[in-house]
Amino acid sequence: MSMIRVLYRRELAAYFATPLGYVFIVIFLVASNAFTFYLGGFYVRNQADLEPFFVFHPWLYLLLVPAISMRTWAEERKTGTIELLLTLPITMWQAVLSKFLAAWTFVAIALALTFPLWLTVNYLGEPDNGVILAAYLGSLLMAGGYLAIGICMSAATRNQVVVFILSLVVCFVFTLSGYPLVLDAFRGWLPVGLTELIASLSFLTHFQSISKGVLDLRDLVYFLVMIVAWLYASAIVIDMKKAD
Amino acid sequence: MIEVDALTKRFGDILAVDRLSFTVQAGGVLGFLGPNGAGKSTTMKMLTGFLRPTSGTARVNGVDIQAEPVAAKRQLGYLPEGAPAYGEMTVYSFLAFIAEVRGLAGGTARRRLDQVIREVHLDQVLSQRIETLSKGFRRRVGLAQAILHDPGVLILDEPTDGLDPNQKHEVRNLIRGMSSDKIIVISTHILEEVDAVCTRAMIIGHGRVLADGTPEELAARSRYHGAVSIHFIEPVDAVKALQALPGVREVEVHEGGRSITVFPTVGVTLLPGIARLVEERGWEIDGLHQQRGHLDEVFRDITGGAAA
Fold it and tell me: For residues B157 and B51, what is the distance between their CA atoms, to the nearest angstrom?
């Protein structure tokens, strides 16, 4: 555990050592607020809740999280530090987990910095803060899911642009897998059972109930399983692709 | 001790390392020589646990790198090719991070950091970001990182690549200084380096050991081993007289007669006889020396068929 902490601290510090971290946070804050007020109709709805804020999170993450995750392994591979890292006396799992946790913490910091919105809605009315807390938790879990996908893509190739686009596509499929846009591509040739399985893997469906404040254990488990599965796949991919 | 046991690595159709076996004892510097693509780096990557061998294994002080990778890695210090390091970190924070990962803490960590920073001369750049450093300094950071925990086994992939002559000299001194109680394996394609630091040289080609011995033993395989070169002030027709000496196999003339190389038959020392001849004939010379052999020639001979 202490090894993960050492690695984690280095990874997290790296986000703030370059402008990338700050640029990400600023863009995330500007975009999430713009969506909330202009597209979400925060004032027009005349309701004291943050649904117009949370409802756009899947789309925001879809674009922004791959930008965070794309460098995790691709950069290590490009600069050769992967060889340094993986010949230190650490296990693969410690390396993968510490990278993920650092990236997740970074997104959590960005998410936490949206707190003025929460202050605003509390100033304007009397929202159900339990619902808001649940939605924040759900949003963070979903971000973890996107991150884990992106990290796995980053493990697969050293070209960061390719990583970004791949992550975007895979994340998009998982976001909308409950909707006809994705399902129709499978419906014709896959057995109904499998199509339903794909439909049940949708980030959007799982997040929607959470964003309304309904904390269903199944949704939480879903995101945690997603994270673990993609991280496990990352470890395998890194091990396979180390040589190139 | 390092024991390499039938180590093999295959990348698709390419056999990069082919059943390589050897052992290295503590107290010396083993130089891996070989043309580019000979399998030097791949071997080192397997020794350090970065790449998984296709078959075979290696043991570091008895610890199998495959069965107990973390325990084996603890005993190793490794400078990968190109001396990679996290560019956005400062030199000090990077070394402090490595110290932490290596399990050094508190006073021990501070003492080791101070010592290594002094040895590798990093004092002036401690608070600089690694990406802003020159190639020489980066290589030294890589070296510092590898020796920080005072490992029993040090594996250095081209430790002096890209350094200027002064820096090369310093790094070689450093390596020699550490070699008495450690196993040090370096890879290089700079042959003077073998003479300068290695106590044992292993020439590798196509993933196999082609030659293994002390640098002197390897040099002795050269056609130039024991050959005597004479340099005359004015061109002299000395070929006949030299050929008449006992034990002379061949005489070569260069620079229009100003320079002559005399090759002995095996086991003969020519220098005294030639010196006497020069004196008798009253030849005006400004150079006379016996060669120990050209390592680069041996290298070319041995790897000629294996060059990639």
Answer: 15
